[in-house]
Amino acid sequence: MLKDFPGNLASALTAGGDSRLDIGGLSGLNKYLCPALPDPGIVCASSCTASPIEQNSFDAAAACFDALSGAASVRSRSMLLSEQTRRVERYLLRYFQADGLADAMLCPSGTDAVLTAAGLLAAERGGAPLTAILPSASETGTGVPLAASGRLFDGPCQGQIITPAEIGTLEVALRGPDGSPLPDDAVDAAYASAVSAASGRAVVYLTYGTKTGLIAPHDPPAGAEVIVDACQARIDPARVAAYLRRGWPVVVTGSKFFGGPAFSGAVLFPVARRIAGLNRNVPGMGTVLRWIAAVEAMERFSGAAEDAAKFLDRRIAAVEHEIMANPALVPIGGLARNGPHWADRPSIVTFAVRDARKAGRLLPVKDLKLIHERLAHGGVLLGQPVSLGAFGGLRVAIGARDVVHGAIDEADRLLEAIRGLRNEPAAGLAVAAE
Fold first, then answer.
1. How many CB atoms lie within 10 A of CB 100?
2. Neighbours of 168 (CB within 10 A)
3. Cα separation of 128 and 165, whole Å?
4. In sequence order, what E strands does 43-166 have?
5. To which H or E segment does residue 226 belong?
6. What does the alpha-carbon distance between residue 322 and residue 170 come to, in Å, rounded to a whole number?
7. Is the peptide bond before 35 cis (omega within 30 degrees of 0)?
8. Does the chain have fewer CB atoms within 10 Å around its N or its C terminus?
9. Rounded distance, CA 326 to CA 422, Å?
10. How many helices (H) and strands (E) does the chain have?
């Protein structure tokens, strides 16, 4: 381990990921349109997808990288990396109120963490068949259904099963044809029906925060295994602890709401379900460095969390007002406010875009990608477009860095970008020139 040491921190931060982290040619951006280095000029409203690394987080990762670089031997580097791994794991257990309730296992990404959790349950079941029941990929991620089925989700071996059991998948729709969220009782009934139809043991993925901020199912069917997909990390730590007490593994990341660099996942696995003889792999340097950066962001957010609910209410209200005021845009329903904690507040706003070329038509994902890229190259990064059936949606996501900084100028630039999306009948929808 660490024999092929990266020559610089930017390379180290992307090590051990998959193709989504590859820096593309001359652009200097990965597939999320994020640079590998801090860029304070970017207005980041993309915490539902990925965020560029912030300077403070970069500095924290740099300190660890420098220590690894200065280690006297490969063995001492490996020991130092193990120490940093344990430090991050201990922090996650403290933050999520999981001390004594769970073991923390670092993974290269949230999708890798889902794959790890699926593998642990498959091992626990001794190879008996399972069926994973989860929201449609448009609400979770393109690789998540493969990961939940115990298969590699990226690279030349994509689709190869690596768990000791065959795991089937059933997907549950969370939205109707018009993009509106289905009623909670209807969604819960659909999950119950899927459990009844499952082959072998059913594993329900309680997704606490989909790509568009939904939570489903609200009441998992009795008799099913449950894995909590909290990869967005828009969740109350006390709720995580409650899930762990019920014996439910919880999957989290530091790279969505918290705004750490893309690709930092973890499984919180209940100690009551420890698997004898489990051989835990030591995470790679890239995974640990990205988590060190994420932990720095989490620590800063913890100091501002008390005021986060009020901040989210104000910022989301301002975003929704601009969307409603723009005739080119159509708001799409998301999470309804359902409690006093900041995690009970909506922090992702989804909207569709009207097609100026055809009345009544909303733009599909492929057209929204052009808008998304145009905004990104102009310094405003939104969440990547998601499929809502026959059309797509763009997302504005408010994350921990917004709560910490509360920057008025960035908020103004974001609102101005939303205001600038307009219909131009001759050329379709365009972004207003600055």
1. 9
2. 16
3. 6
4. 43-45, 102-107, 130-135
5. strand 225-230
6. 37
7. no
8. C
9. 8
10. 13, 15
Any residues with CB less than 8 A from the CB of 253 and at least 6 apart, and which?
109, 110, 113, 231, 232, 233, 260, 264, 265, 266, 294
Closest CA to 326 of 431, 181, 398: 431
User: What single DSSP character describes residue 161?
Assistant: B
409-416 contacts: CB < 8 A, separation 24 or more? 410/43, 410/44, 411/315, 411/318, 413/43, 413/379, 413/380, 414/43, 414/45, 414/319, 414/380, 415/318, 415/319, 415/322
Q: Structure tokens of 356?
A: 């100026």
**Distance, CA of 345 to CA of 180 (rounded, Å):** 18
Contact 244, 117 (CB under 8 A): no
Burial of 54 (0-12, 13-18, 19+ CB in 10 A): buried
Strands (E), 308-391: 329-332, 348-353, 380-387
The residue whose two tokens read 């990921």 is 17
Strand partners, 430: 422
CA gap 434, 432 in Å, rounded: 6
What pTM, to 2 d.p., does this model score? 0.93
Contact 245, 269 (CB under 8 A): no
Instruction: Read off the tokens for 368.
Output: 């929204």
> Can you tell me the distance from the alpha carbon of 255 to that of 263, in angstroms, rounded to the nearest whole number?
6
What gap in Å lies between CA 110 and CA 58, rounded to an integer? 20
Digitized pLDDT (tens) for each residue of the chain, 434 residues in all: 455 666 789 889 988 887 888 887 657 898 999 998 999 999 999 999 999 999 999 999 999 999 999 999 999 999 999 999 999 999 999 999 999 999 999 999 999 999 999 999 998 888 899 999 999 989 998 899 999 999 988 888 888 888 888 899 999 999 999 999 999 999 999 999 999 999 999 999 999 999 999 999 999 999 899 999 999 999 999 999 999 999 999 999 999 999 999 999 999 999 988 876 566 777 999 999 999 999 999 999 999 999 999 999 999 999 999 999 999 999 999 998 778 899 999 999 999 999 988 989 999 999 999 999 999 999 999 999 999 989 999 999 999 999 999 877 788 999 999 999 875 443 345 544 33
Instruction: Annotate 24-48 with b (16+ C-beta within 10 A) or e (fewer).
Output: eeeeebbbbbbbbebbeebbbbbbb
DSSP per-residue string spanning 400-416 = HHHHHH--HHHHHHHHH
- Residues 302 and 244: their CA atoms lie apart, in Å, by 21
Look up residue 46 and give its two tokens. 């993309």
